[in-house]
Amino acid sequence: MDNKVCPICESSDKRQVHESDDVYGGREDQSIVHCTNCDLYYLSPSPTQDELNLFYENSFEDFMSKRSGSDANWDDSNEHVEISIREYDRRKKFLDKHLYPGCKVLDIGASTGFMLTNLKKDNNNIEITAVEPSSEFSNYLSSINVENYRYLSDIKNDIKFNLVLHFFVMAHVADIKKFMQQCYDKIVHGGVMVFETPSVSDPLYSLYNIDEYKKFYWQIAHVYSFTRKSMEFFLKSMGWSFEITPHQRYDLSNHMWWMQTGKPGGRGKYTQIFSKQLDQQYKEDLEKSEYYDSLIITVYKP
Questions:
Q1: I need a labelling partner for 156 at 20 to 30 A (CA). Which of 33, 111, 127, 128 fits?
Q2: In whole angstroms, what is the distance from residue 37 CA to residue 6 CA?
Q3: How far apart are CA 180 and CA 99, in angstroms?
């Protein structure tokens, strides 16, 4: 590695350590680097924002369909909505306390808008707006009458929101500080931002050390990957008030499937055997042991 500087803490080359050459969908010259100062993991060399925009506008659904196995359908917008209801149910508990009549909600990277439309269904008096760069998904959003923009910068500066959301978007941008500040600037005073991003403390990667998963984990679409330590460092550097909630997203069936086959696609496979209580206890035990596959963050704007 030559002259690498951490994009978050700006530590010098001496603190940047090679983590992996396995980057799903990446180029031969790309690898994952770990900053031992702030604990950030990042893709190097990273794509430019123009390259990322082109990818998300035209190729993201196909990329995710090939990568996700049977766990999701990214090719058909209607089927994507149906499958994604489990994600809505999982995230809803983190959002309910921030919703009230007249609340203006913005979802950045909204895909088919399943979060917004279900929030609207459960909270009829809220206002919903989406940001979605994908041509297919933005067309779908327009077809179901959800106000949407291609990019955050397309929204007029004086338009603000009470609740700003983005799920698994933070890892996908070239200039993370600029993007997150743009998100923060869209929150009204007294408003909240809630977002989710993958955690490198994922038990399949950090606890079980499954070789096939380690080769699968890093991907061209994830420019940045965080641990709790690096997330805290980043948010403090932005000067924000925040709360971090470690969260285990994938279930026991998914983990067993990876151990059995070395492939994605096993979520819910053994639900006829494992009770919901067992699955929930498994997730909670992982979280208590500091192994979890995502971080859910709430940022408060005074």
A1: 111
A2: 9
A3: 22
CA distance 222 to 47: 10
**Six-digit token pair at 72?**
């999701």
Pairing of strands 104-108, 127-131: parallel
How many angstroms separate the CA atoms of 180 and 158, rounded?
A: 17
* Structural domains of the chain in order of their starting residue, each with its CATH number: 1-46+199-302 (no CATH), 73-196 (3.40.50.150)
User: Any idea which residue has 């530590």 for tokens?
Assistant: 11
pLDDT tens figures, 82-140: 667 889 999 999 999 999 999 999 999 999 999 999 999 999 999 999 999 888 889 99
**263-293 as b/e: b if 16+ CB within 10 A:** ebebbbbeeeebeeeebeebbeebbeeebbb
Residues 6+ apart with CB under 8 A from 213: 204, 205, 258, 262
Q: Which two tokens stand for residue 263?
A: 């492939």
Distance CA 76, CA 10 (A): 41
Characterize the bridge pairing of strands 41-44 and 31-35: antiparallel
The residues that bridge with 20 in the sheet, in sequence order, are: 32
On the question of pLDDT at 69 being above 70, the answer is no
The secondary element (H helix, E strand) that includes residue 296 is strand 294-300
Summarize pLDDT for 251-292 with one digit per residue, the tens.
999 999 999 999 998 989 999 999 999 999 999 999 999 999
DSSP 8-class letter at 47: P
- State both tokens at 69: 């196995």
**Please, how many CA atoms are within 13 Å of residue 234, restricted to the half-sphere of its CB?**
28
- Contact 163/192 with Cβ under 8 angstroms? yes
Do 166 and 132 form a contact (C-beta atoms < 8 A)? no
How far is Cα 284 from Cα 278, in angstroms, rounded to an integer? 10
Secondary structure E strands in the chain: 16-20, 31-35, 41-44, 104-108, 127-131, 148-149, 161-167, 187-198, 224-225, 241-247, 294-300
